[in-house]
Amino acid sequence: MLRTIAVRTGLTRSAHLVPSLCRRTMASTPADGDSNSLILTEEVGSKGVITLNRPKALNAINLEMVRLIYDAMKSWENSKSLVIIKSVGEKAFCAGGDVRAITETSNVELARKFFNTEYGLNALIGNYRPTYIAFIDGITMGGGVGLSVHGKYRIATERTMFAMPETAIGLFPDVGGGYFLPRLEGKLGLYLGLTGYRLKGRDVHKAGVATHYVESKNLTALEQQLLATTSGAEVESVLDRFSEKKDAGVEFVLAKQMKQINECFGAPTVEGIFKNLEKDGSEWAQGTLKLLHKMSPTSMVVTQKQLELGSKMDLKTCLKMEYRLAVHHVIDSDFKEGVRALLVDRDQKPRWNPTTLGEVDPVRVEKYFGPLPDGSELQLEDDGPKASL
User: Fold this and answer.
1) Bridge partners, residue 162, by sequence
2) Poorest-confidence range of 2-6, 125-129, 251-255, 342-346?
3) Spatial CB neighbours of 346, under 8 Å, sequence gap ≥ 6
4) Which candidate in 43, 64, 96, 97 is catalytic?
5) Beta strand 131-136 pairing with 153-156
6) Which of 79, 132, 209, 337 has its Cα between 20 and 30 A from that of 298?
7) Is there a catalytic annotation at residue 142?
8) Annotated active-site residue in 166, 203, 223, 334
């Protein structure tokens, strides 16, 4: 989760790949220390390709990158049949979003702007008319999950590493985490959201986070064939031809623990989860407890409630709830301290307030889910003027 905010400059040039069909629009920023464009967009006939081009920062997205992606997608919404999003480099699809700048400045207005723009993009992806395909090749965390998981197809590779590690920085699994996590098998989503457990390669597919698994060496050929398709059925056929079956290879990394995960994380409260793990007493349960003790107690309670509520919401309603949570967290939470301990000073010793689950104030937790102080809400493009939860 590498985070920096950059300034946008725009320029346009023709691409050389397919001169008659392809146009590439670039935006560059001096903040990254070179003249490379952070977002590349290509038009190939009735298809569009978006490429995150910030490999030195593991393709972490900032506010301007989110705006550029949103603008490209909106401009293609009624003219393209298919849009692919991918990244440059082998290490990361997208390692996260820009929260460090928000916590360092304590600028609530910047927080509103960032989360409003990012969640607006998440909503667009989840309701996009063209077929949306994300190549999640490499690290895919936080904001990178939001760029991919709500789309129709997500292609994992042997290099994919998925995680929602927000409770470790005093936040919660946002970008629609409250929507997609509780829709995974059993209590797997809650387990992933509370622990930040990392899924890799085939396991991202087996967990249901990715829809397909393709070896990275075959991505170029897959992209070329997808760009040549003429129908939705043909897209399905191409993906099926390149993808491994979900039950192929070794079993899911958490297969042997799923019964325990469902039983232990099926408790109605986080305290209940801790008690179930203590009662279980296995090596896995002890390791899970050790991991959970590192997380913000308040964040874990908020996350459990977020996923419980989100399981009954559509994506847009869930994002509106998460917008409230995000802005409230910037105003008063463990968020700033978590970012300090893990991303700034990196001493790995966050001073959570409160320090134990028993001290978490239910009234404070409820406040996170309530209206913002100025009455503002996340306004999505097709909302009326008074849209709210």
Assistant:
1) 140, 199
2) 2-6
3) none
4) 97
5) parallel
6) 209
7) no
8) 166
